[in-house]
């Protein structure tokens, strides 16, 4: 059928631009990657807070005022959800990316994940304590 | 339980079809039948022109990988009853060009495997009189998991990055590189690093993790890639500190 | 010697930022974005000013901000590559993402270090 030396004709489907909606795990992956946008938002918000607090009590109140309008609150609820998604996925992947050995034995992945959550709890408590005083 | 099932099989005949189509077959549904048994039934009893690859029927040759209901699986290790009442869809492995029916062109994969020197590299051999290269159970455990790969390419099929950018060297090749890098008898880590630190090597991977989910042999290519990224990054830092050699 | 490319360094920054963001970002966002504006907890300004103007706080915050921005740049770059299949505009995207991270880092340094 095909002449000598002719390559077989193959069919190569074009990947759809929507490839990531096709599967739950792909969708979760893309959401995880999008959390990076909210990591940037977290930086912006942190800087805004520092800047406003430094300008004095009035500027600080003004910032809180802006942030308490419904749109800002909605945005921050979404942002918090994405940041938690980032934390959960990041902690879960750590034991895969770096298996840790202690006394010659592999530390079980659950222990690594648990240790990270303990650190998370400690840091969160410390930050809240710092702010509330 | 119904004793037949519809199997919806992708057909593609390059001289006749512009693109793949599907064809339904009614096959017996038996408790101990795997998808491959269904395909063999079709070929023996219903349509001898159906093309697909298989060999060992025991999950070791790695040639029977296909998409079953959109998941890459070994068809010899996937039971029909798990998909009852059907219809069950059988398609060629995703991310590879289709040659005919369920057969895909794997030359891309075959070409890239040797790039990572998947064998024991020695810069100097010990004299034969010194005996074998001995290894402790601990040293074996370091790489054993990665040596289980059967080159079935399910991980390539599951990987969206490979699907989008076929230049990406891909999960199994990197896991295979780790298999030898972590072997105490091997000395080729630096050569492999040169290959994998290339933009088409490690860095395209964004840790989707689907390769690990798909792997029938628990090789965990995703973990291998992440671990290797860390090694590669540290080696690069070292090279900056030490300056050009 | 491994081929010198910036990619491994970008990945290291991405990882460092990922760890820091995973640990710090939720609580900070919870406080600054929800708890304080909505009055769930109240912190008086003078105390907050004390805490935030401490040099150590500033340095820690700068580290977190810069790493987090490079985390964002790296991940968002690959999201554009793969999610939207824009890899062919790789150079522009790369320059844009890391450029943004650098600008952001400069802004963070200005806010955190200069104004004291
Ligand atoms: S790593 Fe697993 S899925 Fe990939 S080729 Fe090897 S055995 Fe198959
Ligand atoms: S036929 Fe050999 S792995 Fe399935």
Structural class of chain B: alpha+beta
Major β-sheet profile of chain B: 5 strands, mixed
By CATH, the superfamily of chain C comes out as Fumarate reductase/succinate dehydrogenase, transmembrane subunit
Average pLDDT number of chain B: 91
Integer tally of domains of chain C: 1
Please describe the topology of this protein.
The complex is a heterotrimer of chains A (133), B (245) and C (116).
Chain A: H1 24-55, H2 57-67, H3 70-97, E1 101-102, E2 105-106, H4 109-132
Antiparallel strand pairs in A: 1-2
Chain B: E1 4-11, E2 21-28, H1 35-46, E3 65-68, E4 71-74, E5 88-91, E6 98-100, E7 103-104, H2 107-112, H3 137-144, H4 154-158, H5 160-164, H6 171-181, H7 189-196, H8 210-214, H9 221-242
Parallel strand pairs in B: 1-5
Antiparallel strand pairs in B: 1-2, 3-4, 3-5, 6-7
Helix pairs in contact in B: 6-9
Chain C: H1 7-35, H2 45-53, H3 55-83, H4 90-114
The site of iron/sulfur cluster (SF4) has 15 residues of chain B, from helix 4 and helix 6.
Organism (chain C): Jiangella aurantiaca
Pfam families (chain C): Fumarate_red_D
Keywords (chain C): Cell membrane, Membrane, Transmembrane, Transmembrane helix
Descriptive notes:
Chain A is mainly α and 133 residues long. Chain A has a domain at 19-94: 3 helical TM bundles of succinate and fumarate reductases (Up-down Bundle). Chain A is built from four helices and two strands. Chain A has helices spanning 24-55, 57-67, 70-97, 109-132, and strands spanning 101-102, 105-106. Chain A has a two-stranded antiparallel ribbon. In chain A, β1 and β2 (105-106) form a beta hairpin. In chain A, α1 runs antiparallel to α2 (57-67), α1 (24-55) packs across α3 (70-97) and α3 (70-97) runs antiparallel to α4 (109-132). The longest helix of chain A is centred in the first third of the chain and has 32 residues, at 24-55. Chain A is flat and about 70 Å long. Chain A starts with 23 loop residues before the first helix and ends with a helix. Chain B has 245 residues and is of the alpha+beta class. Helices cover 33% and strands 13% of the residues of chain B. Chain B is built from nine helices and seven strands; from the N terminus they run ββαβββββαααααααα. Chain B has helices at 35-46, 107-112, 137-144, 154-158, 160-164, 171-181, 189-196, 210-214, 221-242; strands spanning 4-11, 21-28, 65-68, 71-74, 88-91, 98-100, 103-104. In chain B, α6 packs across α9. The longest helix of chain B has 22 residues, at 221-242. Chain B is elongated and about 65 Å long. Chain C is mainly α. The interface between A and C is large, with 54 and 54 residues. Residues 54-57, 59-64, 74, 76 of chain B line the site of FE2/S2 (inorganic) cluster. FE2/S2 (inorganic) cluster (FES) is lined by residues 54-57, 59-64, 74, 76 of chain B. Chain B: It holds the Pfam family Fer4_8. Chain B: Keywords: 2Fe-2S, 3Fe-4S, 4Fe-4S, Iron, Iron-sulfur, Metal-binding, Oxidoreductase, Tricarboxylic acid cycle. Chain B: Its cofactor is [3Fe-4S] cluster; [2Fe-2S] cluster; [4Fe-4S] cluster. Chain B: Residues 139-169 form the 4Fe-4S ferredoxin-type domain. Chain B: It is an enzyme of class 1 (oxidoreductase). Chain C: It comes from Jiangella aurantiaca.
